[in-house]
Amino acid sequence: MELDGKVALVVGGGRGIGAAVARKLAEAGADVALTYQRDQASAETVAKAAGRRAVAFSADSADPAAVAGAIDRTVSELGRLDILVNNAGAFRLGPLEELTTDDLEQTIAVNIRAPFLACQAAARHLPAGGRIISVGSNMAERAAFPGFSLYSMSKTALTGLTKALSRELGPRAITVNLVNPGPTDTDLNPADSPDAAGISALTALGHYATPPDIAAAVAFLAGPAARYITGATLNVDGGFTA
Q1: Quick count: other Cβ atoms within 10 Å of Cβ 131?
Q2: What positions does the domain Ketoreductase occupy (predicted)?
Q3: CB of 170 within 8 A of CB of 187?
Q4: How far is Cα 169 from Cα 119, in angstroms, rounded to an integer?
């Protein structure tokens, strides 16, 4: 229970990796708030399964007011904020010539602007020992397939944000880190899809991760053992980028 007494907000915590992160932080003792965009029932189930004080509320990460509002609501309902996990993401793929301005704007809004605004709002509340952890993608380091130009660009931006904020918030004893998952078995990227065997073959371990694999890394960075780690990127990708 090394996070006992802490409050965490998982942005995009209603399903997949985000849901696993919310559960893992609760198992470690934290009270958890999580946001969702569409699936209210799933998000509420995750919150109940967390077992401690937990709330789920709708927030569209493409809406700047909703992002800041998620921070304020967490503090209002759970009393404080110690850990911010930026997990929401937009996944727009396609050949360069077919991508639209809407694809570009949506990707930037969710994958770049939302984490920035969440960090900005959270910094007003985080105490010494606070944590900011963003969930990116190993596609920021290895664009292994065609069609990932927007997605890879946006996830690469999180590396710069993480490094810069680690310097800015370090004097306040707040750490800022990035977890880059590789292929992970979720409803959006199932390990039994037709392409999964080829993707698995690109990893050193030969198989997909599970959401709890990624959640374990996030929980480590949120805990006291990681107090001297900041500005770092942790690839949890089975050797995909090795």
Answers
A1: 24
A2: 6-202
A3: no
A4: 10
CA angle in degrees (0–180, nearest 5) for 74-220-142: 100
Tell me the residue type at 68.
A
Element at 233 (helix H, strand E): strand 233-236
Give the pTM.
0.95
What does residue 124 show for φ and ψ, rounded to 5 degrees? -75, -15
Instruction: Compute mean pLDDT per 10 residues along the chain, 242 residues long, and list them.
Output: 93 92 92 84 68 84 94 96 95 94 96 97 98 96 91 96 98 98 91 92 96 98 98 97 92
Domain ranges of the chain: 7-233
94-119 as b/e, with b when 16 or more CB fall inside 10 Å? eeeeebeeebeebbbbbbbbbbbbbb
CA-CA distance, 40 to 58, in Å (whole number)? 7
Give dist(CA 137, CA 237) in Å, integer: 9
Catalytic residues: 151
- Do 182 and 135 contact (CB within 8 A), yes or no? no
83-86 vs 131-135, strand pairing mode: parallel
